[in-house]
Amino acid sequence: MIKDVLQDAESRMKSALSVLEDDLRGMRTGRASPALVEKLTVEYYGTDTPLYQMATISVPEPQMIMIRPFDKTALKAVERAILASELGLTPNNDGNVIRLIIPPLTQERRAELQKLVHKRVEQARVAVRNVRRSAIEDLREFEREKLISEDDLKRGQDEVQKLTDKYIKLLEEAGQRKENEIMEI
Q1: What phi, psi does 101 have (nearest 5°)?
Q2: What span, in angstroms and rounded, lies between the C-alpha atoms of 20 and 18?
Q3: Which residues contact 81 (CB under 8 A, 6 or more apart)?
Q4: What are the tens digits of pLDDT across the range 78-90?
Q5: In terms of domains, do 21 and 111 share one?
Q6: Residue 156: beta bridge partners?
Q7: How many domains does the chain have?
Q8: Of residues 33 and 118, which shows the higher confidence score?
């Protein structure tokens, strides 16, 4: 019973970590990465489609992303999606491929990105703490229903706290890695 609560809590904490990592991967740093654009949705024949499903995304140079749609008629739609996104990049369309030149980050933009990383890490921390609270409530409920003893409750709460500490540390490390990447010149 306690094991089930712990497994559930760990899987939910893991998903909070993976959501944060996905989020951070999509953040722009000084160098090009396909993760910047692959989740972009493009209106394609009336349906919102993720870019990675309709184009090959490559990084031929450290400061350039190249997008080659499988269907050349989608070039204009991809271009519109990039312009409408919050990337702040201007697509260069040559009729076959779209090239995105990633300009070097300014010091102001680096500071903004750093704040955004802090905000996202804090949101993930809150998610992990909510999982902890929910798991401890479940354990207390078991104890109230006399399904576990008071000692089991205490042990279970300690285990949940250890899990929480472990995942908060992992979140902090992910945020720190991204900050270091942003501050790299």
Answers
A1: -90, 125
A2: 5
A3: 40, 41, 42, 43, 51
A4: 888 888 877 777 8
A5: yes
A6: none
A7: 2
A8: 118
H-helix or E-strand spanning residue 38: none
Nearest Cα neighbor of 58 from 36, 40, 88 is: 36
CA distance linking residue 142 with residue 5, whole number of Å: 10
Q: Which two tokens stand for residue 184?
A: 């790299």
* β 64-69/55-61 pair status: antiparallel
Q: Domain range spanning residue 112?
A: 2-25+106-183
Spacing of C-alpha 60 from chain mean position: 24
Integer Cα distance of 27 and 123 in angstroms: 16
Report residue 79: phi and psi, to 5°. -60, -45
C-alpha torsion 155→8→137→169, nearest 10: 70
Token output for 97: 């491929």
Cβ atoms of 23 and 120 closer than 8 Å? yes
The enclosing domain of 142 has a CATH number of 1.10.132.20
Q: What is the arrangement of strands in the sheet containing 98-101, beginning at the earlier edge strand?
A: 55-61, 64-69, 98-101, 91-93
- Residue type, position 11, single letter: S
Q: Tens digits of per-residue pLDDT, 19-58?
A: 888 888 777 666 777 877 877 888 888 888 888 888 888 8
Alpha carbon 125 to its chain's center: 13
